[in-house]
Amino acid sequence: MTNPELHTKKRLVSLDVFRGVTIMAMIIVNSPGSWSYMYAPLQHASWHGLTPTDLVFPFFLFIVGFSISYSLSKYTNKQPEFSIYKKISWRSLKIFVVGILLWLLFEPDLANIRWPGVLQRIAICFFITAILYINLNIKHLIIITLVLLVSYSLVLLYVPVPIDEIILNALNEGEIPRAHGFAEVEIYKNTSESIKPNLEPGTNISAFIDRYILPGPLYEKSWDPEGLLSTIPAIATTLLGAILGSQFRIHQIKTKVDRMKFLITSGILLLISGMIISLIIPLNKNLWTPSFVLVTGGLAVLVFTLCYFIYDIRNYRPKLKIGQALGANAITAYVLSFVLLYVFYNDLIWGVSLNEEFMKATKDIGFNPKLSSFIYSLIYAFIIFIPLNILYKKKIYIKL
């Protein structure tokens, strides 16, 4: 998120760089030369587990929370004015609507809108975290974060799942439909009307709620990775960013060494806590499990620490400011990447699909298909960087 208060002399360059690198990674994994040829680290874990790609979205939500602690800090020690609620609501609504419009760009069917999505989840997490942040102190935010994670864990582990058509088929066939194929599942009846609580794809309580409540198509057919119930722990990720950001601001009155110690200690504690909890509830991005929240939160803190050390302590300033340029207009970069994705991949515009032509040309000269696909995504990301760099140099910050 771009925040006007951060566009000052006190702006954290490291936060911009962290945000920019995260958006760059998001663009790279979303725009390969071919979805059939991708290196494993550039793909999401099929179900349980964690890949570098799985870090991108939680990192961004953590950054959203961290930014909130700066942009809304002046409202925390007094009664918030109505105008700030209006601004928070309006910004959230705009981000949500843009997410819907991006879906319609590729699927122009008003009767079949996919309501959940990346920007939609960002909008919800931003809205709830911002409202909580300006009304509650850090102790209360920590308690709420813990309550969200514990409550979500109990629901996943102990609430039986009603049997619907998808689950009935899974009981009979041992698999459920998902995007681009099927997923094998192992589930057991609890009663004639429900199955036992489980963390299997498509048959868990989160997936059932998505199918039961959400209108329109689901991204994975049987569930949505940005579904309703899994948004609760995603809010916890954003709250973690706000909590750590607030404490980081307090530590700015201390020495740089103290700030580094605080960040490193926090990151390690979150990481260890998440790994311990993963023994009970595995790391899983689709379910956004509590272990996933803590591990990715810990890694986000440590990556930010590295950025802080390089850019705000050592004052490193590269000539090509990719991180700063993309980070200063992160949502704009994300939206532009999808708009151009439609242009580049659409053979109705050019008569050919540019990515397919690139893959054919590199194949003819002997390139490995996975390498070609990766090179294409890097070129595509750099094309996105060009207009964003112009905006950055002109100090133009587009915020939704």
UniProtKB/TrEMBL annotation:
Signal peptide per UniProt: none
UniProt superkingdom: Bacteria
Domain Heparan-alpha-glucosaminide N-acetyltransferase catalytic intervals: 11-150
Keywords: Membrane, Transmembrane, Transmembrane helix
TM stretches of this protein: 12-35, 55-76, 88-106, 118-134, 141-161, 228-250, 262-281, 287-311, 323-345, 374-392
PANTHER family documented for this protein: LD22376P
Protein name: Heparan-alpha-glucosaminide N-acetyltransferase domain-containing protein
Lineage per the UniProt record: Bacteria, Pseudomonadati, Bacteroidota, Cytophagia, Cytophagales
